[in-house]
Amino acid sequence: MNDLTAFVLAGGKSTRMGSDKAFLPWAGGTLLSHALKLAGTVARQVRIVGDAKKFANFGTVVEDVYRGRGPLGGIHAALSNTRTEWNLLLAVDLPLLEPRFLEYLVAQAREARAMVTVPLAAGGYQPLTAVYRSEFAVACEQSLREGRNKIDPLFATVNTRVIQAEELAQAGFLQEMFRNLNTPEDFERANQIRS
């Protein structure tokens, strides 16, 4: 666990939700407290990627170097501030993820020793539920400098271990857990699934 840092990406604009997702109520706390607890099941070192003024009371905060560039900017910030080889990136708005899945994901990353270990599920890559080696910061930096903000195209440029949907199903994981919360309707559905 000492060679792994977990980062919770909490810096999204939450425009479609209408209020800051990180502070929505969930499981007796907030989405942020839930994500931090979830991350803590696999990593001793847990950090928040977002606005220090907003999140400093909740843990160690890392701020984007390239502001307003979406999730890639957050991944770059995390990997530019890590001291560990392995880094788990988690979006704050994925509350249905299971601790058992994070253990599985980290184990797959260690076994593959790829630059990126990412699930392919629920219709696409899940880059905000993935494990990155710290050197992936170089690819992020180059992409951001060139004005490219998309994460998925970078996976073809490095050694990437893609965990296929079939593998996830065989291991007993449901696609439903990758449901992220962008709107009040998404939030309502997730609460129904949880209860």
Query: Tally of extended strands?
Result: 10
Number of helix segments? Answer: 7
Q: Give the CATH topology.
A: Spore Coat Polysaccharide Biosynthesis Protein SpsA, Chain A
Can you give the mean pLDDT?
Answer: 93
Radius of gyration: 16 Å
| Topology pattern, helix = H, strand = E | EEEHEHEHEHEEEHEHH
Shape: globular
N-to-C span: 31 Å
Class in CATH? Answer: Alpha Beta
Structural class based on helices, strands and sheet pairing? alpha/beta
Strand residue content: 15-25%
Helix content: 25-40%
Structurally, how many domains make up the residues?
1
Catalogue the unreliable spans: none
How is the biggest beta sheet arranged?
A: 8 strands, mixed
Task: Give the CATH H-level superfamily.
Answer: Spore Coat Polysaccharide Biosynthesis Protein SpsA, Chain A
Explain briefly what this protein structure is.
With 195 residues, this protein is of the alpha/beta class. It has a single domain (4-194), classed as Alpha-Beta Complex (Spore Coat Polysaccharide Biosynthesis Protein SpsA, Chain A), CATH 3.90.550.10.
Structural commentary:
- With 195 residues, the chain is α/β, with parallel strands linked by helices.
- The chain has one domain (4-194): Spore Coat Polysaccharide Biosynthesis Protein SpsA, Chain A (Alpha-Beta Complex).
- The protein contains 7 helices and 10 strands.
- It has helices at 31-40, 52-55, 71-80, 99-112, 136-145, 165-170, 184-194; strands spanning 4-9, 25-26, 29-30, 45-49, 61-62, 86-91, 116-121, 124-125, 129-133, 160-163.
- Strands 1, 4, 5, 6, 7, 8, 9 and 10 form an 8-stranded mixed beta sheet that branches. Strands 2-3 form a two-stranded antiparallel sheet.
- A hairpin with a 2-residue loop joins strand 2 and strand 3.
- Helix 3 (71-80) packs across helix 5.
- The longest helix has 14 residues, at 99-112.
- The protein is globular, with a radius of gyration of 16 Å.
- The mean pLDDT is 93.
